Each structure stands twice: as C-alpha cells, then as structure tokens.
Amino acid sequence: MADGADRGPAAGGRAPAQAPQRATWCDERFDFEATFLQCLAKHVPNIYSAEMDPLVEKQEEMVQAAILYPLECYLFGEDPDVFLEKLQQSGTSQLCGKVFKGGETTYSCRDCAVDPTCVLCIDCFQNSIHKNHRYKMHSSTGGGFCDCGDTEAWKAGPLCTKHEPGASSSPKENSECQLSEEIMEHSRRVFPSVIKYIVDMLIWEEEKELPVELTIREKVDSYYCVLFNDEHHSYDHVIYSLQRALGCELGEAQLHTTAIDKEGRRAVKAGHYASCQEAKEEIKRHSENVSQRPLHVEVLHADVMAHQKFALRLGSWLNKLMSYSSDFRQIFCQICLKEEAGSENPCFISKLMLWDARLHKGARKILHELIFSSFFMEMEYKKLFAIEFVKYYKALQKEYISDDHDRVLSVTALSVQMFTVPTLARHLIEEQNVITTITETLLEVLPEYLDKNDKFNFQGYSQDKLSRVYAVIYDLRYVLVSKPTVWTDRLRERFLEGFVSFLRILTCMQGMEEIKRQIGQHIEVDPDWEAAIAIQMQLKNILLMFQEWCACDEELLLRSYSECHKAVMRCSTNGRSREKTVFHLCGHTLESRPYRVSADPVSIHLPLSRTLAGLHVRLSKTGAISRLHEFVSPEDFQVELLVEYPLRCLVLVAQVAAEMWRRNGLSLISQVFYYQDVKCREEMYDKDIIMLQIGASLMDPNQFLLLILQRYELADAFKKIKPTKDQDLIKQYNVLIEEMLQILIYVVGERYVPGISNVTKEDVIMREIIHLLCIEPMAHSAITKSLPENENNETGLENVIDKVATFKKPGVSGHGVYELKDECLKEFNMFFYHYTKTQHSKAEHTQKKRRKQENRDEALPPPPPPDFSPAFSNVVRILNCDVMMHILRTLLQRAVELETHLWTEAMIQMVLHLLSLGLLEEKQQLQKCPEEEVTFDFYHKATRMGSSALNAVNVLMLLEKLKRVPQLEAQKDTVNWILQMFDMVKRLREKSSLATVGATSGSEATKGDESTQDKEKAERKRKAEAARLHRQKIMAQMSALQRNFIETHKLLYENTLEAQGKDDAIMEEESISSAIDYSRIALGPKRGPSVAEKEILTCILCQEEQEVKLESAAMVLSACVQKSTALTQNRSRILDLSGDTVDPLFMHPDLPCGTHTGSCGHVMHAACWQKYFEAIQLNFRQRLHVEQIFDLENGEYLCPLCKSLCNTVIPIVPLQAQKINSEDAEAVAQILSLARWLEIVTVRISGYSMKNAKGEKQNLPPFTNKGTGNSALEFHSILSFGVQSSAKYSSSIKEMLILFATTIYRVGLKVAPNEADSRIPVMTWSTCAFTIQCIENLLETEGKPLFGSLQNRQHSGLKALVQFAAAQRTTSPQVLIQKHLLRLLGVLLPNFRGEDTPSLLEVDMFHILVGTVLSFPSLYWEDAVDLQPSSVSSAYNHLYLFHLTTLAHIMQIIISSATESPAAHSSDNGEEAQSAQSFCRELCQHTSGCFSQDIPGWLVWDCVKKGIMPYLRCAALFFHYLLGVSPPEELLQVSEEGQFKALCSYLSLPTNLFLLFHDYRDAVNPLLQRWCTDPVVLSCLKGKSIAIRYPRKRNHLIELPEDYSCLLNQASQFKCPRSSDDEQKHPVLCLFCGAMLCSQNTCCQELVNGEELGACTSHALQCGAGVCMFLKIRECKVVLIEGKTRGCLYPAPYLDEYGETDPGLKRGNPLHLCQERYRKLHLLWQQHCIIEEIARSQETNQIFFGFNWQLL
Ligand SMILES: [Zn+2]
Ligand SMILES: [Zn+2]
Ligand SMILES: [Zn+2]
Ligand SMILES: [Zn+2]
Ligand SMILES: [Zn+2]
Ligand SMILES: [Zn+2]
Ligand SMILES: [Zn+2]
Fold first, then answer.
1. Phi-psi region of 142 (alpha: psi -120 to 50; beta: other; left: phi over 0)
2. Measured in angstroms, how far is the CA atom of residue 1093 from the centroid of ligand 4?
C-alpha cells in the first residue's frame, strides 16, 4: 500500500480531466467536506470492491480518475502534472529527510556529528565533506532519517552539495517558492477534511458500520474475515492455521502469510457475515492449538475495509504533496495540531499517535512517513510535535510495552529524532520537564518487578517485555547526550527535579537481588541475573552523564550531592538492629555492627553509593568540596556507612575468588565477571574502589584497616596462627589475604581518576592503553574493545594512541597491531587494577622476559604515582599506620620462617609492592619539601623494631633474610630494589637534615645502582650461557624422541623436501657447467639427452624409501581433479562440457571449461594409500551420523599429511631416459623430410584403415605432386627409422594408470566411472594440456620465469601428470588411440579430414599438439608386438608434429588477430617483417583476396610474435616434462626478448617463424590451400564472424573499487531482477565475472535438476563449473563455494586504516581495498586452491556445517 512509485511528479496513467466532477468542488458555495465525503461514499466502495483478489493497477487508475485528479485540480487550480513539475523545479528543501529502510547503509562522521545518532544517507554522504573525515558505516535498523541539512546535528558541514541552497538547477535565491494565496486558501479548505477523514477511518472501531456521512447506499451483507500480523506466531504457524481453518492450498496460505507479514493485515475470506464469523473462530481455534495464543482475526464489513484502505491511500497522497512545498507542510501541521475549542480531545496528530499501537503495520508505516515528511521537515513544527509527544509520553510508552510489534514500527521510536536535538532537548527539559516524565514512566512500568522491600527483582522476567523498557532508558540517554552550555534557573530546577526522580529508580536498585552464600548443598536452579546486569549496562553512561551534568555548576553539584547522600543513607539501614562489637589489634580498636559477607545477604547492585562516589570526585575536582559541610552536616555524613556496602561487594568478589561461593553456581560467577568487565566497571567496580579511597581519606587509617580486615573476615588470621590442617581452609585464607592486599594496593596506588589526582581524561586513557599493550601488541579493534565507551560510543583511543604506541602494518594475512613505545614501558604497573588474573600474569611474564632480553634485572617496581589531590591526600596515611606495618611484618615473617602453607609468592609480591609504594611516597615528599615538613615517615616505621615477640624483627632485616628464601628466587631483584630505595630514603633524610640538595644524592644513588648492576650483569650472562647449553641438550634429546611421532614426520619431511629441492637446484647448476656442450634442444635431430636422475621417494604413510622404477610397485601422488573455468575467454558462453554424449577431443579456443589436475605433492605407496583409503571408508561407515566434509563416494579424502582435499592419486611413472646418436640422426635427416614423413604416416594410417575396416574405402590423395618413389613406400616404412620395444610396466603401476585415468574421465565429464569408455585417453590428454596451460598462465601473471620457479608441489604434480599421460596409452586398445589420432590429424592434414573435423579456428592448437604427440606411438603397434619409436624416430615425430601445429597456430593468429589496421606506425622493416609481407601475399592468393595484402609486414610479425608466446611456453613445458631435456638458461629468468629466442631454440624453430612456411614449401602448400578455403576461415576474414584473438586475455578477478563505500553504494541501488518489493536484499558480487546476484532469497532461487538452488549456487555452476568466489557486499565477507554442499567464509580484501578487516561491518570504519590481499584471492583461484581452502576451513571451523550452502 505504501506506494513508492507515487513520489515523483509523473505518477503516470492519469485520466483526462473530467469536467463535471471538477465543477462540484470548485463551487465555493458548496460545503467542501460534505461534497468530498459524498464523492468518497460513492466511489470508494466500488473501487476497492475486490479485496480478495485485487487488480492493483486498475484500482489505482480508478482512484486517480475519480478522486485524486479532480481533488488536485481543485487544489492547484491548474493541471496537477504541470503544477507539480513547476513546484519541483522551483527548488527543494534544505533537509534531505530520506527515511531509511532496514538494512540500508547509513553514515556518521566521528569528527562532526553531534552524536552518533546523526546519520546521512549514502547520496548525501557521497556529496558531503565528511567523506574525507573519520566516518562510520552502519546498517540501519529502519525508521530513521537522513539528517543532512539539520544544522544542529553537525558541528561542521551540515549540508551536502546537493542540499546546499542554490545547488539546485533553479537560480532562485530562496530555495522554497511561495505558494500563491489562492492555493494556500484551497489547501486550508481541503486538508482539514482529508485529515479528518484519514483519522476517522484509521481509528474507526465499528466492524460493521460506517459513519453516517459515508453511508449512502443500502447495506449489503458482504464481509471480510481479516487476519492481523503479530510477532508471536511464526510463519509456519500462520500457514498451518490458515490451511486447516480455510481448507486452502499451501500456496494460497503462503501468499496470505507473506502479505500479512508485509502489510500487517489481509482479508483471507470474503462472504456473508456468518461465514466470515465462522472462519474467524476456526482460525482462532487452530492457531491456539499450535501456539497457545489465538491469532488476531476480525470480521470487517466490505465498505469499512474499502474506506480504511482508501484512507491510507490518501495518506500517501499527502505524503507526496508534503515533499513539494514548505507551505503545504506548514498548513498540514497547523491543522494536525489544532485542538477543538473547548474540548478535552487531543488534536489530530495526537489521536493518531495514541492509536498507533492499535494500527496494523502498513498503516503505521504510512503514518510515520507522513510525520517525517511534514513535522520533521519544519523545525518549528518539530518542536510543537515534540511537545505533544512528551505530553502523551507515558501513555505511548505503556502502549508500546504491551504492543508486540518491533520498535521500528512504533511511534515511540521517533523519540530519538527529537530528544537528540540539543535545543529541543533543552526546551523539553525546561518547559515539559521531560527528564521527570521519562523517569516517572520508568517507575510506572517497572513496579511489577518490585519485591516486598521495594527493590527490583527480575526473577522470571520476560526478555521481550524488559527489552521494551530499555527503550525508555534509552530516551533518557538521548535527552542527556548533549550537555547544556548555558544554565537558566528554570533549567537547573527542572534538571534537579529530574535527578531526584531518577534517584528514586536507583533506590529501587540499591541492594536489589541480594544473594546469600549457599552452604552444604549446591543451589538447584541458577537465578536469572542477566536482566539486572543488562540494566546496569544500559544505565552506565546515563549515570555518567547525570554526574557530568551535575558537575556543570557548583550549586547544582552540591545540591545533587546532598540529595544523593540522603538517598544512600535511607538505604543503609540493614544491620542497624544488631549490637556493636569491638575488635582490637595493635592497640587500636574498632567498634562496629557485626556483619559477615559469608553468612549475611549481599548485593552487587549499588548504583546510589556509586553515584555518590562519582559526585564526590567531581566535588574534589571542582574544589566545591570545601563547601560540602554547608549541604551535608559532618555528623550526618557517616563515612563508615558509605564505605560499608561497596566494601561488602569487594569482599564478595574476594570470597568468590577463594571459591567460598562455588555452591552458588554460575550465575554469581557471571555477575562478578561483569562487575569488573569493561562494559560495567566504570559504574560498578571502579566506583567501589573510589568509595574505599573516600573512606581512607576521611577515616582514621588504623580504623579503616581494621574495618577492612574485619570485613574480609581476616581479623583472626593476623592475630594468631591457628593450627589447622584443613588444606582447603588454609588455601582459602591465603586467597583472601592476597585479594585484600590487592585492594589495599589499589586504594593507595590507583590515582588515575580526575579529581582523585590532577590527571586529565587523556592521561587515563593513555594509561589504560599502555597497560593493555604491556601484555602484548594488539590490534586496534582489540584495544577498542577493552576500553570503555562514552555516550557517543567513543573511547578516545585515536587521540592518544600515537603518543604511546607505534603501528605495525599487517602482512597478506593477519592484521595490523600497535606496539608500545619503549619510553612508555616505565609506566607499567604490575598491579594495574583493570587487569584480570590472566592479563596480570601475562603482562608480568612479558615484561620480565623483555627485561631479561635487555640483560637487565627483573624487578618491576611500581611507577611513581601522581600526587593525590588535597581531598584525598590522607589516603597515603594507611601505608605507614600501625596496622599496615603489622600486616606487612607478619607476612614477611611467615615467609622468612618458611611456614610454607601460610604464605604464597603472590602475597609476598604484593607486600613488596606496598613497601615500594610507601618508599616512593616518602621519597617524593622528601624531594618536594624540607624534611621537617614531611609527616609521612615510612622509613622509620619500617625500620623500627616491634614490641611483641612476633614483631621482634624490623622490615629491613626481614627483607635481607627474604633474599635467602629459595622459593622467592624470582623476587630477588625486587627485594634488592627495595633495599636500595630504603638506602636512598635514608640518605635523603640525612642529606636534607644536612641541608644539601637532593639532586646529588640522587645521582650517587644511581651510581651505586650501576656498580651493583654491573656485577649482576656478569652473573646474568653466565647464567644465560648455562641455560643456552642446557636448552641445546634438551633439544637434542627431544628430536631423538620425536622421530616416531607423525607430526614430526611432517616437519621432517617438509624440511627434507626443501633441502632436496635446493640440492636439485645445485645439481642442475653443476650439470649446466659440466655439460655445457649438451644440447639444450628438445626436438629434432639435435635433441639433447634426457636428464633423468634416479628418483628415490619416501612414502608419507609408512616412511619407507623406494626408488621409482617401471617394474617396481607403484608409488602415487595425492591429487585433486576438478573442472575449471579459470582460463575461459567468454564467461557468458560457458558450455557445460559434461554428460554421456559430449565429445571432448577438441578443445574450443575459448577454453570454456577444462579439467585441472593438481597435487599437494605428497608421495605414498599405492598399497599404503589403498589401505589408508579403505580405513577411512570403514571409519565413516561405522560413524554414520558424523557429517563429513568430503565425499567418499566420489573418492574424496584428505591428504594424510597436509590435509588438502584430494579425490585421486597420480601414479609416478619414471621418465625413460633417451639419448640419440647424432650420426644416426644426421643420416636420417638426409632422407626424412617433412614431406616424406607425411607420406610415410599417410601410408601407415591408410594401411591400418584397410586392415581394420575392410570394405570401407578410404581415398587418400598424395602429398607431393612429384611422385617421389611412392612405390618405395609401404605399410612398414615407418618402422625403418628405428623402433624399440614398449616399456613394460609393473601390474601395480598399470592398475594405478587405469584408476587415475578413470577419475579424470569421471570428474571431467561428470559421468559414472567406466574403464572401457573410449573417451578415457582423450580426457587424459586434455587434462594434461589444460593443466599446463593453467600453470603457464599462472607463471606469467606472477611474473615468474618459465622454468625453475614452480612450487615443489606444482613441479612434482606436473611431472607425474605428463609422464602418466604418456604411459596411459598402453592401457587402452591401440586401435582406439589410432582412431583418436586420426581425427586429431584431420584438423591439420587435408587428407584425414572427416565429417566432424572442426575448422582451424575452432580448436585450441596446444590441445591438438599434446593429443597428437601422446597418441602418435600407437602407429608403431604391430599386431601382437607393442613397439614404440626409437629415440631418433621420436625426435623426428615430435619435431614434425610440433612444426605442423605451430604452422597451423600461426595461421590462426594471422587470421584472427592481424586483420586490424595498425594503431601505431612502425618503420621496422627487418627480415621477419619482409618474410611476413611475402607470406601475406601468398595468403592473399590462397584466399582469393579475402586476406588483404595491404597489412604491413611488421604488424603481422608483431601480432604473430606476441600471439604465439603462450603456445610456445606451454609447448616448452610439455616437452620438458615429457622428455627431460634441460631448457636453455634464458628460460630460468624473466626476459621478454631472450625468452622468445630461447624458446625457438629449445623447440627447434627458426626465430623468423615465417621461414617455416618457406622451408617446408612443398609440403605446406596443400595444407595452406586447404586451411584457407575453409568456410569458417573465409567468413572470419570477411568479417562475418569473430574468432578468438591471440594472445588470449589472462583472466583476473574483477576490478574492485578502492573505497568500500562505493560498493555499498552499488548495493543500495541494486534491484532484484525477479521481484519488485522493497524487502531487504542481500546483494552478492561474483568476483569472477562481476555479476550482482540476489542471494539467500526465495525470489531468485532456481530449479536445477529438481533441486532448489540459491542464486549464488546456480550462478557458480555456470560461471565457475561449480567453484566460485563471491563478495557479500552488506557483510563485507568473501564466500567461497564448491558444488551444492560446500563453502566457507573468507576475509574480504578490504582493510581499515588499522590494517583490520571488518566482517559484518560491525565496527564501521572506512575500508579500503588491499591489493596484496586481493591478489592472494586471485592466486587462490588461478592455482585451483579454492576447494582446498574450503576443505581446510571446514575442518578447522565446524560451525558452518549447519549452513545450507545450497540456498546461498
Ligand atoms: Zn540524505
Ligand atoms: Zn544532503
Ligand atoms: Zn565530518
Ligand atoms: Zn608406504
Ligand atoms: Zn599433501
Ligand atoms: Zn560469475
Ligand atoms: Zn531476488
């Protein structure tokens, strides 16, 4: 219904003006409203009569013609289209106001946005200055709108260039054109009636009747049964209920359900009242059966339904109108806000707001859009709307909370649009008291969670309902987000009122959800804790903002402090009834009421206490603390009571750590975790520490410590040693002592809070970051996650990070990290209060290791802390008070006396830390003021003897003894450091009493330091050396031990392989130098010898070595055969070359789809592999239900060593070394010319044909017209140039030859295995040729030399593949091979041409070459004797076959590529160019002029030279791996020119390729004749068809934009090709071809072979032969898929400035393309490693099993 097409000026399909109707309205004498309603009454029921099966276009036409067109004519006084066009031209609003749909990308600027809710649409963003700022990208949840043009939303650049005044095409100075008075007058007449009609109809409650004005005709018994949407019932529930209740088909029920979900309601049945009523009851009954709650169904009269529908249509009509003119908007708003005089009724807009929760989805959408397009586009009216909104705020929120639609669909979601506007927020606070309104709303909606003590208790809460309450809390956050700069009295009063009201909520939270320690039995059910913690999280920033607001103004701060203090006191009542008890220690006493955390109830929720603590530090910071007594009298202050509750909470944490609460289950553990976690700690843990610091600053230090001891239940532990043997209890005590010491360290040492000391917020963040980076270098996102976010979701990280850390860029994988700068290391505090236990030990370890590496001592004393501010300066007194000394001494004593069960190393570390803190404090004080003024004397206290027996020794003496305790070896350096500090402080005291300056003493002290350091350095060095030797010994032992360990085999094996590889290289080099005279020619009479070294391989399974020999048992390489489109030249025309009827003999020059064979290069015995494969088969058969990542049926398995996915093995066949006698060869050369060779071959073949197919006549024309002794030639001539017997393979090799060949056939053609199929040898040659082409392509794109740069796995894979392809022939019938050979030769030789022989331009010549070379030996087959050509014969056969295909390929190139007129001119007139020129003349004759001889020779030569390169490179690879002849050195390097010459020499070609035609003129002329008269060639020459050009283009992944937002932009414009609804789509980009697909959506599923496949999966079948690579644009993730069942996610090649990827765009930082990573993806594709990557990722990442890749 929300008709988007309506927005433009040309709505299209308008009916011509109808004069009569126009007249009634134009007449001023008529009452407009009455006429209007009459018109509606007449038309509307007719137009919307067919509700069940509406013809939407027809309805729209009728609405336009009968109502809207006349209405507009009247309103504008002229043709509406013309008028609106004029209005459109005259300018647009300065506000963009685009309303976001769910999933649309929004942009915010971290530099300029006032708060993170200020966002831009993609258009505005792209045209704004923020594009170059630190922006954030996010996915909209729907319902927001673009803030472009809102000056309050942006600190800078509020307008994009599109919305800037004067930017529109119109030259008018004011962006809005004024409407004429007449039109305004008409609007004032029309709008009220229209609005009233809409309101009346939308809130119409009668089901059967209409208002009288609309009832004009006889009522008919025509009703609809209407079903409404709710969020309770699932899709399937509704479909089920409908099918049952209405007895309809599944399809119809689905249709209804989809519509209901989209629109919110739908008529599911039409008929008489009774039948509709019956259907209603049925639906309710069935739905109640499935889900306990009936669906919402109503029976509506047809006319009511029609008018409601039309009311919404009018709503969108108004919506359109609003966009044209500010005047329309203002008139509209005025009418909406107008209250009836003397009536209590709310105005129109409020009525609609209040009715919102009762409207169906579709109606709400239109209503909200209307509000956006009118009120929110006019600042003044936005304010008036906000006032109305706040007026009804409570009611609206309550409606929302009991509503069951998403928040986006609620009018309450509009709050963010108003409350975040700073001026509006201020106005609403001042005039509407909005803070109080919100807090009262909270108080009114939360009572259901209050217990008998008026505290919240969320046990058994409903997640959904409570999360609706969060929305109210969020509103509070919005109102507070911008702090006022100017305070009026009224604002102050209102704010305070709101604050007090807010304190009432906190009062209900203070002490909520108390828990009691469980003793004896474990609790049965974990209580719900999430709700309370979630509210704490929600409140964290609100609490902070309240404190910030309070601190704006001294008066306000003091008054709010006093209010908060009162509230805390009111809550601090519990335990008051108990009698006070007295506790003595060291001559000090503490009177307190007994309370034990381990026995009495305790709560971790203390927001009031913590707010007070927050206000207290602000008092200290602003200095207002000096006036505190005016507001809170000292006798009322009661600091012990304030400290009490936070202290209990900290003790609880300690007891949990001591495992005293383990019977209370996991819920407590989780609460304690969040209490200290970064999401909550600022308003929980941190504030409790502050409260203790407040206590320490205001209480007597001894009393304070006694209180701490008592609450930690450790009073006895420091009095006397209880002789207990209970290990658990001892352990428990030790942990508690550690925990308490830690808290004492924090109370004294943690001063990085503004107000506690004089630090800034920046200092605080820097310190946090330093301590994070002391653990390890971290990624930007990891640091961000560990820092608290403020109300604007900022951590302040970027402002300071560069001061403390340096950025290290990422490599091709991984991410960038920050490393701490060296000068910051001194800030490291081992007992940093935000460290978790693991972080603490990691950091300590890292820092100690670092110091060791730098050869320094391992002491890590605390850094000197900043001074306390005056209000807190008393805290340090607890360091040197009696009780503290007692504690320290007692613990040290225990350590020295070796009572091992009473102390721990950690405890002593903390004691040492506290000692250091005391000494540092004294040193700092002494350095600042004269000694007599320093009251802090730690030194004397620590060196004084104790009086009791226990204290008979002083601290200093204890420390000396400590050095000798063996368990504390690691602390020796620290102890030394402390002793030096003692010394220094002593000297400072002495010096200052001698009135010398402290500076000299300082330097002396450091000198002393140095001399001891030197000594220790030497000692350390000695130790390090000893340690190194020890390590070596252990390593040697280890490696001996590990030999049997499979993992080690892997390592060892890989190492040896590498080493072997190096050896090979060296050997090759040696052979080069020693055998420099060896010919490096692969073909013909000068052919060099094969370099075939003995191959000894190790089986990765049994670890035994074996030499590869023909007659031995087979060894195999694990391998993976796959179909591939990696080389295709025409992705739109990818042929599916599979199935039973396909003839794979000829490869199309497009290389559409080939069969690639890859290997991971790991060798096994065939027998071992078979055993292994059977074992996994058996294994999986036994575990039926385990989902497997590989398909055993299709022979898949994981390589036992590297876990690559494989589906077969390649047998390793040794190369047969060949060497020819040059004299023989020369002799043969005399007789065996090409022509003669052709004759012999022809005779041989025709001989066979006669033999094999008697009766069939074969007519073979002679090759030469000279008649050179034809008679001499006979069937056996071919044998006379030398034969040898065929190689004899062992049966196991033969078996493997057959197995592998069958796999290639099965995978390549997607058919069932059949060992006897005639296409098996063809597929063998084809995969051999295709794989070589892939490798050649890869080497070229990687810029690597042709030889010597292949990876080991590629090298051994290719070698095995080529040798296999040569050997495979022996396992097939030779007659079959001969048949294939004959057909292949048919392409080259006219006399073998058959019916199905393709034209020269329709085949890939390299495939022909490989096929003919590998099948040629079959011509030597003599009846029962399997002979093969001798080395000399082979040399000639190879040479001539290669030359023939080369000639043909040159023809291909010239015909297809050299026909264009030159783009550049060249004067090159070398030998080649001249030869080319003369050859062209020849061609011209042969083609009777079709080939133009005007093409310059140099151009032809240029084309040929460039075009033939890939072919020559492939041929060189092929012959090298076939024959083992070393290639010329030039091919081991990358050099353009050298390469061509070297290739020609290696392949026995003249560098002037045209000489071939010249030299072989006699033999070649008939061929040329035949090639040139081919109809396909001629048609190509005539320009009638296009042949593939050479060199073929090298495939690359599509080009991606540098800036990721460009992709998002494309995605936002993406339209699904199959559906037009405004549903959220998931556009996905194919990286092979650039197609944009609509993924994971039913609209684009495709039925393939009876299976529903998603758009990606079906595209992949076409585009990548099943393997494909996609980019999910909205999620910024790459997806790799294979077939229908496998896939994995892969990081997208986009990085933010911190070198991190952002899957899911969760962080939203700007992203840029990383070329290296994209290249890595490209290689993954071209190396055919996608399948491997998927298998690997699935193995490690089992979660993706659940994903249905098929529907992607
Ligand atoms: Zn915009
Ligand atoms: Zn804009
Ligand atoms: Zn900006
Ligand atoms: Zn083996
Ligand atoms: Zn492997
Ligand atoms: Zn594609
Ligand atoms: Zn679609």
1. left
2. 22
Ligand with the closest atom to the CA of 1732:
5
Round to whole Å and give the CA distance between 1299 and 1313: 10
Q: Of the ligands numbered here, which is closest to the C-alpha atom of 1115?
A: 4
> Contacts from 29-38 at CB under 8 Å and sequence distance 24+?
32/189, 32/190, 32/193, 33/192, 33/193, 33/196, 34/213, 36/71, 36/190, 36/193, 36/194, 36/197, 37/193, 37/197, 37/213, 37/214, 38/213, 38/216
CB under 8 Å to 1613, separation ≥6 — which residues?
A: none
pLDDT tens-digit map of 1231-1280: 888 888 988 888 888 887 777 655 444 444 444 444 444 545 677 777 77
- Spacing, Cα 1327 to ligand 4 middle (Å): 27
> Which ligand number lies closest to the CA of residue 154?
3
pLDDT at 1453 over 70: yes
Ligand 5 centroid–CA 1725 distance in Å is 19
3-state secondary structure of 1678: strand
For the stretch 960-977, pLDDT in tens is 888 888 888 888 899 999
- Whole-angstrom distance, CA of residue 1568 vs CA of residue 1739: 57
Find all residues with CB under 8 Å of 1410, minimum gap 6, and list them: 1325, 1328, 1329, 1332, 1365, 1518
Rounded CA gap, 802 and 798, in Å?
A: 7
CA distances from 1635 to 1615, 1630, 1656, 1657, 1682 (A): 13, 5, 10, 13, 18
Which tokens belong to 1239? Answer: 């004759």
- The answer to whether the CB of 461 falls within 8 A of the CB of 531 is yes
pLDDT in tens, 33-48: 888 888 888 888 888 8
pLDDT at 965: 85
Q: How far is CA 836 from the centre of its chain?
A: 28
What would the mean pLDDT of 295-321 be, rounded to a whole number? 90
> What's the 1126 CA to ligand 6 centre distance in angstroms?
11
User: How many whole angstroms separate alpha carbon 787 and alpha carbon 797?
Assistant: 8
| 1635 Cα–ligand 7 center, Å | 13
Mean pLDDT of the chain: 84
Ligand nearest to the CA of 1639: 7
With tokens 């398995």, the residue in question is 1197
Distances (CA, A) of 1365 to 1210, 1334, 1435, 1527, 1529: 10, 17, 18, 21, 27
When pLDDT is cut at 50, 70 and 90, the band that residue 1737 belongs to is: confident
CA–CA separation, 712 vs 701, rounded Å? 16
How would DSSP label each residue in 209-229? ---GGG--S-----EEEEEE-
> Ligand 4 centroid vs 1156 CA: distance in angstroms?
26
1163 CA from centroid of ligand 4 (Å)? 9
If you measure from the C-alpha of residue 1727 to the centroid of ligand 4, how many angstroms do you get, rounded to a whole number? 28
1667 CA distance to ligand 6 middle (Å)? 10
The pLDDT-based confidence of 128 (bands split at 50, 70, 90) is very high
Ligand 7 mean position, distance from CA 1751 (Å): 12
Which residues have C-beta under 5 Å from ligand 2, the single-atom ion? Answer: 96, 124, 148, 160, 163
Centre of ligand 3 to C-alpha 131, Å, is 7
In the reported structure, the alpha carbon of residue 64 is separated from the centroid of ligand 1 by a whole-number distance in angstroms of 30
Compute the distance from residue 323 Cα to the ligand 1 centre, in Å. 14
Question: Considering only CA atoms, which of 306, 225, 231, 309 is closest in space to residue 271?
Answer: 225
- Residue 1205 CA to ligand 5 centre (angstroms): 8
SS (HEC) of 1333-1378: HHHHHHHHHCCCCCCCCCCHHHHHHHHHHHHHHHHHHHHCCHHHHH
CA of 1629 to the centre of ligand 6 (A): 8
Q: What is the rounded distance in angstroms from the CA atom of residue 1404 to the CA atom of residue 1595?
A: 17
Distance of CA 1669 from the midpoint of ligand 6 (Å): 8
